[in-house]
């Protein structure tokens, strides 16, 4: 099902949103037949419920949708999307009860409720389509939905079909569709091009490690997005237990999110010079694996002591961030499924971010609510720097002790962005653990809508 709005049509059936306890007020002035039908039902306006209204011949002439209370809606990101799943096929138009302030995000939620991942098996999805509410930017919302669908598809695809080669192919497909240029450095060429840590992490896998470098746009501020593309993470020689390895197909969620964000930026025609950098690797086990206690020299020249081969994401990001920093763009943003510590701190639903400047954080915080894309700032706490300094090398990739794991990972990355003042890092989960309105179980975009909404303020667009 396309994630697009239905065309305006006289055949669209009206959907009346009813808050909890508001049924009687809506029934005032309704025909006796409708009053009797609703009165005989159990419909109360409870959130996510629906009641089809029949015509005299029994065919639907509209529906009531339960919009719940303000308290219940605060616990659901897309309340309207819960109703979409209860409606029969055809175009629907919200006739009453939708607050103007909620129209944009509720309409987006409805679009996202139509997403399915059907590459391996046919999947059902809500078949009711929404006519875009008056006053919303329908084209922009469709662009956001398409970008989210790209991210979800990439994360949901298992590593057997989404290794470094397939991730490169996805980036090339996007570049071709949007008129971007792309260069890829692969295998031993990474060493010649001075990306030693990307090479070290990925060299044990059957598919060569690579650095994907995509560019688009020739005017405006320079924005560089860096996404962690670890297509599967065994943990390397510090092998993960089975319970921790089960979701590692999503360890390229940072790459999937920056590709979705890049697609949206290009589709909306933002006046920026966009660069996307993705170190794409698989952290595998073989006689080529990098080892605990190895010391790697990064592109930046900083040496890194390996105290856990399962802390590989920051290594590949470090080389890519060093490259990004060499051009001193107006803004660098990295996204990665980097630490379990971030989930312990904020859970799966909120993406923590770090920012070198307060204005960056303020822009993200202002954009997150309207985008229904919750984020929360954590600090680049400089006193913790000593935790990532092992003594034998410049940096430690896995500080002992277990405290402040997300912060120390972010501090590690910040060491590779020294010339660009404006840097932000998102430590995302990129996974929906159970189905919710507008969010199917599986891959999820976290942060891109917030970043997109903040760019005009940050860059003066």
From TrEMBL:
Residues 308-315 form the Cytosol aminopeptidase domain. CDD domains: Peptidase_M17. GO terms for biological process: proteolysis. SUPFAM superfamilies: Zn-dependent exopeptidases. GO terms for molecular function: manganese ion binding; metalloaminopeptidase activity. Keywords: Aminopeptidase, Hydrolase, Manganese, Protease. GO terms for cellular component: cytoplasm. InterPro entries: Leucine_aapep/pepB, Macro_dom-like, Peptidase_M17_C, Peptidase_M17_N_1. Its EC number is 3.4.11.1. Belongs to the peptidase M17 family. This is Cytosol aminopeptidase. It comes from Roseivivax jejudonensis.
């Amino acid at each position: 099902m396309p994630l697009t709005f239905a065309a305006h049509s006289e055949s669209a059936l009206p959907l009346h949103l009813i808050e909890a306890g508001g049924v009687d007020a809506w029934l005032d002035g309704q025909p006796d037949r409708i009053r009797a039908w609703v009165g005989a039902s159990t419909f109360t306006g409870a959130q996510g419920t629906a009641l089809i209204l029949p015509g005299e011949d029994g065919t639907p002439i509209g529906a009531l949708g339960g919009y719940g209370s303000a308290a219940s809606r605060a616990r659901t990101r897309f309340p309207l999307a819960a109703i979409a799943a209860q409606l029969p096929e055809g175009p629907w138009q919200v006739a009453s009860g939708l607050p103007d302030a909620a129209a944009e995000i509720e309409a987006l939620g409805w679009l996202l409720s139509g997403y399915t991942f059907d590459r391996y098996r046919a999947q059902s999805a809500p078949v009711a389509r929404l006519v875009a509410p008056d006053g919303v930017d329908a084209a922009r919302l469709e662009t956001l939905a398409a970008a989210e669908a790209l991210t979800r598809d990439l994360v949901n695809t298992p590593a057997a079909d989404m290794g470094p080669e397939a991730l490169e192919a996805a980036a090339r497909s996007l570049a071709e569709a949007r008129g971007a240029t792309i260069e890829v450095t692969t295998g031993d060429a990474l060493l010649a091009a001075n990306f030693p840590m990307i090479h070290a992490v990925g060299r044990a896998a059957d598919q060569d490690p690579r650095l994907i470098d995509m560019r688009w746009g020739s005017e405006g501020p320079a924005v560089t997005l860096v996404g962690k593309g670890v297509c599967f993470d065994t943990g390397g020689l510090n092998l993960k237990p089975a319970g921790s390895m089960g979701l590692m197909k999503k360890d390229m969620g940072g790459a999937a999110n920056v590709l979705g964000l890049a697609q949206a930026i290009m589709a909306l025609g933002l006046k920026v010079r966009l660069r996307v950098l993705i170190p794409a690797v698989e952290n595998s086990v073989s006689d080529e694996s990098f080892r605990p206690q190895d010391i790697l020299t990064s592109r930046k020249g900083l040496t890194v002591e390996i105290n856990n081969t399962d802390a590989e994401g920051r290594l590949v990001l470090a080389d890519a961030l060093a490259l990004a920093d060499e051009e001193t763009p107006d803004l660098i943003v990295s996204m990665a499924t980097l630490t379990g510590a971030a989930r312990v701190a904020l859970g799966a639903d909120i993406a923590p971010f770090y920012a070198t400047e307060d204005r960056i954080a303020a822009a993200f915080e202002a954009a997150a609510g309207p985008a229904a894309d919750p984020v929360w700032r954590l600090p680049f706490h400089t006193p913790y720097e000593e935790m990532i300094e092992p003594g034998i090398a410049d940096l430690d990739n896995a500080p002992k002790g277990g405290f402040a794991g997300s912060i120390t990972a972010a501090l590690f990355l910040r060491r590779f962005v020294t010339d660009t003042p404006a840097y932000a890092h998102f430590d995302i989960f990129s996974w929906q653990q159970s189905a919710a309105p507008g969010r199917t179980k599986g891959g999820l975009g976290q942060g891109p809508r917030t970043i997109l909404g903040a760019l005009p303020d940050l860059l003066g667009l």
